[in-house]
Each structure stands twice: as structure tokens, then as C-alpha cells.
Write a structure and sequence with these properties.
This protein has 402 residues and is mainly beta. Helices cover 11% and strands 32% of the residues. The chain has five helices and 25 strands. A hairpin with a 2-residue loop joins strand 11 and strand 12. Helix 1 packs antiparallel against helix 2. The termini are far apart. Bound molecules: ligand MTE.
Length: 402
């Protein structure tokens, strides 16, 4: 039997065992980062992690690679508590992550390539951004005809306050050359079989935006494992795939990264397409920012309510634009009424909204539709595409009032 020679060895072995246990109740799996992180000066690490897939009422879309959807009734707080924040993984989460051993390398088109430890990263000036993160595939199951891929309902979207150093401060330290036009992120995911690693890039302009972060914290606490501990990219207003988790490498490139998660993954046809149309790769572009969209979080589809006052409520977001209006229809889209927008707001974050309705007995189809500061309104028919990205038709629930 292997002996444990030091506290460090002990922690390493506990870590390996805990992460290998995978689906086992994993308070243990967080015991290691807690101990190490405290030594690195994280203030208080009662990590509010969600350990078992499906715990806390999350909808499990995949057990193989943890994919958890937030039930819409949880869209009732402006900031989503971390255990209720959706999770999207393309492959296995890193089985061993240690705050002490983790390194972030920064190089490529750079005069001064550098490597940062977590304690060095945590010493950099931090900035916070409240961001609504939405998976490009959110709502995929609602496209008609249906398309293959994870059959997300409405809840592959959540909102949190992300904090960490600005990416541009790190890039400036690395002295990016004028030839640098794109910034690539590599995650530490464990790649099963022949699946290509999770690597994507963003254009240099977005990388230098003052709100693009290397986030270490979410809602004031260090990132949990599911959300990219110890650091992730946070590219606000853009599809979730832009925000690489378990970040280990930042590389400045002369041109867009070429790889599975840039092409064929996460691309959208340049022109509208119909089911069955052949779409040539050169007639597509990479997905960047999110659409304008709203979701009804109550009443729930299929609800049976008493007549009288009913509060129809939900959330609406628009990527890099702001929500200016949410309308609610209680008659299947024939007439629309203005909802009241919640007072919590921040660029890139969703707005909660409410419409107070006096309901009489009957069966109703209730819809919500948002409009943003660019004049975009949710279209009656969303742009169908072969990968089922960016579904954004008005939301709809059917209810009965007694
Ligand atoms: N980063 C890595 N390394 N691996 C991944 O599979 N998934 C991406 C992105 N970053 C992913 C990743 C996708 S598709 C989304 S929608 C977001 O992470 C989801 O972030 P979350 O799990 O914190 O909600």
C-alpha cells in the first residue's frame, strides 16, 4: 500500500479519490480545493456547489457529461444561486484540479509570454460583471422540425455576478503584438476518445473589452468545479461557449482558431435555411452574441389556477443590448399588454418582469415577447438552423383558470 508522506500527498490522494468517485456525494471532492484555496487567501470557502447531478431540482439533460438545466420556476431571482445555475459540459470535467498546481499560460503573438499561478492571478485588480450566460443550444428541443443535440428546454440560461481580472490587463502584461487578431482559450476538460479538446477563440476587440474577464468568482464565492474552477473566461453577452471553463491557456493568434468547436460547431447560416437545405461551411459564420429573448417563469405550463389576480412573470435578456420592453398576451397573441420591468438591471444581465392579470375562468394560452434597445423583437417564427441554435420565439404556456 502506498504511504502518505506529507499533508500535500494526503491532499493529492484525497483529491484523486474524490474526483474519481464522480457521482458519489462529493463534499469530499470540495474538501481539497477548500483547504488549498484557504491557504491561497480566498476569504471564505463554503463552496455552494451542486454535487450530485439533479440535486436541487435541476433537470439532468446528460449524466455522461454533466449537463444540467435550470427549471424555469427558478428564474425568480435576478442573480441565480450557484446550485441553480445551469451546467453545460461537452466532456468530462477535470478529475484533478489543484489550486496550488494550476497554471495559466499566456503566449502566442506576444512580446512577453507569461505564466500565472492562481495566487498571482488573484492579486490582479478585479472587476465584476453581472452577466446572463445562455447556451447557444438553449431551446433546441422547441425547434420544428426537431434537430439532434442536447434537447435543452428553456433553462440553459442563468445569471450571476462574475468577478476576476480583466482579460485585457493580462494581455497587456503579455504585450500583444500588432499581429494578434484573435484570442484562443483552452480548457482542462478530460477528452474522451477521439473528441477534440475544448478550444475556441474570440476576436481581439472583444478580448480587450473592459468587461471581458478571467473570472475566478461567481456571486462572491470562488467558482465551483462545475463552473470552471479555478478560472474561466467570461465573455459577456455572447453565447456560453465563448466562456471557456477550467482555463489553462490563453494564446494570441493571427487568425481565428480552427477546430471542432469553432467549425463545424457553433456556426450559423449566413442566409435563412429550410430543413433539408444543404449548408456549405463557407456560407456560415461563428456565433457570437445572444438574441433578444424572454421566458415565462410563472404560472407554469399546465397550471390550474383560481380566478382573480394572477401574476404572470419571467425574465428577458438581449446579449449585448438592453431590454426595453416586455409584452404579455393572455389570448394566444391576439392582444399584447406591457409588463413592468424589475428594478435590478445591468448591461448584459436579464431583467425580471411581471404582468398583473385579472383572470376569469377558462383555458388560456399566455405568451411573452421582449424588445431590445436595438429594436429587435422576438420573432413569431425563430430562425430554424440545422444545429438548433439561438431559439428565440415568444415564450408560451397553457393554463386553466377555474
Ligand atoms: N468550457 C470548457 N472548457 N468545456 C466546456 O464544455 N462548455 C461551454 C462553456 N465553456 C464548456 C466550456 C458551453 S457550451 C457553455 S453554454 C458554458 O460553458 C456553460 O457554462 P456553465 O456550465 O458554467 O453554465
Amino acid at each position: 500500500m502506498k504511504t502518505i508522506n506529507s499533508r500535500r500527498d494526503f491532499l493529492r490522494q484525497v483529491s484523486a479519490a474524490a474526483f474519481a468517485a464522480g457521482a458519489a456525494p462529493s463534499l469530499l471532492s470540495w474538501a481539497l480545493p477548500v483547504a488549498r484555496n484557504q491557504s491561497l487567501g480566498f476569504p471564505d470557502l463554503a463552496v455552494p456547489g451542486l454535487d450530485l447531478p439533479g440535486e436541487d431540482g435541476m433537470i439532468v439533460r446528460s449524466f455522461r457529461f454533466v449537463d444540467l438545466e435550470t427549471p424555469v420556476e427558478y428564474f425568480n431571482t435576478w442573480l441565480t444561486p450557484v446550485p441553480h445555475f445551469f451546467v453545460r459540459n461537452h466532456m468530462h470535467e477535470p478529475s484533478e484540479l489543484s489550486a496550488e498546481d494550476w497554471r495559466l499560460t499566456v503566449g502566442g503573438e506576444s512580446e512577453r509570454p507569461l505564466t500565472l499561478t492562481l495566487s498571482e492571478l488573484l492579486k490582479l485588480k478585479t472587476h465584476s460583471v453581472v452577466n446572463t450566460l445562455e447556451c447557444a443550444g438553449n431551446g433546441r428541443s422547441l425547434h420544428r422540425p426537431q434537430v439532434p443535440g442536447v434537447q435543452w428546454g428553456k433553462g440553459a440560461v442563468s445569471t450571476a455576478r462574475f468577478s476576476g481580472p480583466r482579460l485585457r490587463d493580462i494581455l497587456q502584461r503579455a504585450a500583444v503584438k500588432s499581429s494578434g487578431k484573435h484570442v484562443m482559450f483552452r480548457g482542462l476538460d478530460e477528452v474522451p476518445g477521439k473528441v477534440p479538446p475544448f478550444i475556441r477563440s474570440i476576436p481581439i476587440e472583444k478580448a480587450f473589452d473592459s468587461d471581458t474577464l478571467v473570472a475566478t468568482h461567481m456571486n462572491g464565492a470562488p467558482l465551483t468545479k462545475h463552473h470552471g474552477f479555478p478560472a474561466r473566461a467570461l465573455v459577456p453577452g455572447w453565447i456560453g461557449a465563448a466562456s471557456c471553463k477550467w482555463l489553462t491557456e490563453i494564446k494570441v493568434l493571427e487568425s481565428e482558431f480552427v477546430g471542432n468547436f469553432m467549425s463545424p460547431g457553433y456556426r450559423f447560416p449566413d442566409q435563412p435555411v429550410k430543413p433539408g437545405d444543404a449548408v456549405r461551411p463557407e456560407d456560415t459564420h461563428p456565433l457570437t452574441e445572444l438574441n433578444v429573448k424572454s421566458v415565462i417563469s410563472g404560472p407554469l405550463n399546465g397550471a390550474s389556477l383560481k380566478s382573480g389576480k394572477v401574476s404572470v412573470h419571467g425574465a428577458a435578456w438581449a446579449g449585448e443590448a438592453d431590454i426595453v420592453k416586455v409584452e404579455v398576451s393572455t389570448d394566444g397573441g391576439a392582444n399584447w399588454n406591457r409588463a413592468t420591468l424589475g428594478h435590478d438591471q445591468s448591461h448584459y444581465a436579464w431583467r425580471l418582469w411581471t404582468y398583473e392579470w385579472k383572470a376569469k375562468g377558462g383555458d388560456y394560452s399566455i405568451l411573452s415577447r421582449a424588445t431590445d434597445s436595438r429594436g429587435r423583437t422576438q420573432p413569431d417564427t425563430p430562425a430554424w438552423n440545422p444545429s438548433g441554435y439561438l431559439y428565440n420565439a415568444p415564450d408560451q404556456v397553457k393554463i386553466h383558470v377555474a
